[in-house]
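Bug #2210: token dump truncated for Thiamine pyrophosphokinase?
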Amino acid sequence: MSLEEDTHIIENEDEIHVSLPSPDDSNIHLINMSEFYASSDNKTNAKVLLILNQDINLPLPFFAQLWNQAELKICADGGSTRLLHYSEKHKSELVKNSQYLRHNNNDSKVNEFVPDYIVGDLDSLSETVRLHFQKLGTKIKQQSSQYAHDLAKSISLINLRLNCPELDIVENCNDHNGLLDLESKNIDNLKTPKHATVFVVGAIGGRFDQTISAITYVTKLSEEKPHFQFVLLNAEYMEFVLLLKKGRNFVHIKKNELFFDGAIATDRISSDGTIKLRNIGLLPLVNQVVLSTEGLKWDVKNWNSQVGGNVSSSNLIVGDNGLYVESSDFLFVNIEF
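Reproduced locally. Full output below:
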């Protein structure tokens, strides 16, 4: 049977109405993509920026707005070098436009991005970069264990920093695997943890094995820390990669919305001024899943999807308010800016 004959697939018009979920419906996991870049006074959901060891190729207006919205900025080991190179690459623009930088220490003379923490085994951190950021106030925490990914070490630091702010996480844990040990000792403080959206720069793109490793760890960490919503940023293409949870999910994204005031989304504007439909892929990278959707050009109902079988790639978002995705297991979704 061809996909054209598959009765589990419904082809929609280029715009359909999708009703917003009830705010009282606790059975739906809501992801509001407008909040990714908008100012928010939400004290129960933090925004965190985590930079891994991959080149940063994101446009400066986009990266700067993510940076300014994040209350906590972390570099995983060599991510610090990538961040320094990114600042050097855009030095003239950072000097000219003060809106790109809002410093925690209010030091307007520092025209670069300065992280709050650098964490990892630090095998990729040169002494020059270490001293550079230490002078600017960055705290550095070595975790030398080779049995955990620097991504996982960073998430432990984030979890402690957000939920146990009174702890001195630099001085009060050993340099081997102390962050994980400190998490375990303070588990009572983490029973009602603060929710956070963690933007991970450098998880997708670059070496394929590192991409798969990041995907594996994000899946594992999502199970261990369900209060974290992970948003992976592709180093080579303008898209978000989300991990949707098992059950019903609603991704709130306006059909004609351009992220970051359209500063980086001009490729989605046609010559006649109309906005092109946003690409999306539903990627069962964890397990085989059964999917039902509402809000896509090609919606599916009770549709089996797996690597080596059916996969919904190069689909389009046509729902005016976003889309519903019901999945029998974790599901990665890539959504174009």
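Output looks complete on our side. The domain at 1-43+246-337 is CATH 2.60.120.320 (Jelly Rolls). Marking as cannot-reproduce; reopen if the truncation happens again.
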